[in-house]
Each structure stands twice: as C-alpha cells, then as structure tokens.
Amino acid sequence: MRPPEESTREEVARDWAVALNSGEIDLASRNAFETWLCEDEQNLLAFEKYEMLLQSLSGSAELAKAEPSARSSGRPWWRGVVAVAASIAVVAGAALLVYTTNGFEPEASPIQTAAAEIRTLTLPDGSVATLGGRSRIETHYEADARRVTLLEGDAYFDVVPDTSRPFFVDAGTRVVRVVGTEFSVSRDSEAVRIAVAEGKVEVFNPGVKDLPVEALLPGDKIEIVSRQGITRSTVEPASVGRWREGWLSFRDASLGEIAESVERYSNTRLVFASSDLEETRVTASFGIDNIEQFLAALESSHDISWSRNSNGDILIR
Predict the structure, then answer these.
(1) Quick one: which of 231, 166, 226 has its CA closest to 200?
(2) How far, in Å, CA of 15 to CA of 12, rounded?
(3) CA nearest to 131, candidates 150, 147, 109, 107
(4) Which of 29, 162, 203, 260 is most buried, judged by most C-beta within 10 A?
C-alpha cells in the first residue's frame, strides 16, 4: 500500500480493495485499513465503489495488473469492518440530524429577499423573523447563544424567551441583545435603526468596550448614523415594523433615504435632478401603494415637481 498522504482518496480506496481481495495482508495493514475506513464516511463510500467494481468486473483493464488470480474462500474478515463502519456513518448522520433540528448548528447560508418581497420564517429555536424587501440575514446558532447577522435591509424579530441562550442581532456598528421580545432592526448604507415593540433590548458597540449600553423599552427607538452619532426618539409600539403591512414611516429623513426604502418595497425608482433635492429632509408616512399621494403632498409642501418616465421611474425636480 502506498502512504495515504501520497494518494487521493480514490486511489487509496482502489488499492485497499485490490489488496484485501488478494488475501495477502498482514496484521499491521489490517489495522491500518480499519483506521482509514472509520476516519471518514467518504472513505467507506469510495472503498465500496471499488469493491463492487472488482466483484462485477473481474476483467477490468484498469485493475487487471493488480487484481489477484485467486481469491480467498468464505466471508472475508474486512466485510465485518465495512458493516461496522457503515453503521457508524448512519448513527453519525442521525446525531447530526438531532443536532441541527434542535437549533445548534454553528452557521447557515444567508437568507435573502428580493425587492418588493416580504418573507416570514421560523428560526431553528422557534423565534420568528420577518424580512423586508431586499434584505439579508445569516444565522449562527450555538449551544449558549442565538446569533443573527443583518447584512442589509429590514428585519422584525419575535424572539422566543430563553435565558440560557440570549438572542443577538449584529447590525454592523451595533449589536442588539435580548432574551425574549419583539423589535425591528434596519440597516442601510447610512445608518442602523432599532425600535422596540415589546419587552426590552440592549444595544452596544462590540468594538468599543467603554461605550455605554443603550437599554430600550417598548416605544423606544434609536438611530446610529455614520459620523453623526446616536439619536433617541419614541414611537408608538404598535407602529414598529409597520413595513410588514406595506406602510412606510419616516421622521426627519432625507428624500434619498426614503427613495431607498421605496425602491426596496415597490421596485419603483426615485431619480433626483440634484443632490440638494436628495438631501431634503421630511417627515412622512404613507402606504407603499400610495407613493403618488406622498409625492403630491411633497409637491404642495416643498418647491418640488415630479413625473414618470417611460421606464416607470419617478423623476423629482
């Protein structure tokens, strides 16, 4: 047998199949085979493939030179080892199934929504997350913590209480820590926004130990804007996460920020004639299906006009 480190898995499996079927193998090689077989389920699968090939294609050109002319009679000892290894693989698979269905997998693939899509999903621990349009999250569940990373967009969480495993939402510059509550987190290129509908959350900066932890209760909202600091405000708890019902609310927000949300929830683009218009700040609340009503109100309160082009984009001048 050639050393495993000098061969691919397939080559090692082929050589073991040939050697074992020859009947000429010493005790040291036998022990080495048992160790290799149980190291990885893929080793077992590769070996079984070549063993079946030898059994059914005794004249295979690829293996002809190495294949013995005589086989030992009776049930080879190594078939028992293969059976045990297969049983171990099945048990390991069952253990993995229990492990993941109980919500302790360390990492999952990103979950994302398309523009104008709102999706509600149940997380491994039974907590519920609702994602807004064009949003992305990753889950990282561990034995002592439940972690979700909001990569972009809006997310509303209804968290199952579990004092032994706190729930964390990482939104870049801030992390939200809860035990069981309902709250929303928004993340875009400009800011992170957190609002609480029920219960209590703690917001902290993982990169700055001396920064105080912000405690938020129902109706509390916090906004962290890049290079501008933190702003706290209050809202009606029932209004938190109203984007789930197709309703967008803004307080002292730039038209650029509003345009970003409108595009995520309706596939409608707002195009500005100048950067000054984009920086115009307004307070507004409107249904995503009533964008034109919002624009009409904007037109009457500001020196602004708008129209649609042939692509359906809204031009603001």
Answers:
(1) 166
(2) 5
(3) 150
(4) 203
- The residue out of 101, 129, 152 marking a domain boundary is 101
- Phi/psi at 168 (5° precision): -120, 140
HSE-up (13 A, CA, CB side) for residue 198: 11
- Tokens representing 85 are 């290894």
Q: By residue range, what is the domain housing residue 296? A: 246-316
Strands 146-158 and 136-141, bridge-based pairing: antiparallel
Sequence-ordered alpha helix ranges (H) in 175-290: 255-266, 275-278
Return the minimum-mean-pLDDT range out of 19-33, 61-75, 170-184. 61-75
Structure tokens, 163: 């004092």
Tokens of 8: 């691919």
**Helices and strands in the chain, H and E counts:** 7, 18
Of 58, 77, 101, the last residue of a domain is 101
State how many domains the chain has: 3
| Orientation angle between helical segments 77-101 and 41-56, nearest 10 degrees | 140
How many angstroms separate the most distant Cα atoms in the chain?
96
- 185 and 292 belong to one structural domain: no
Entry pTM? 0.65
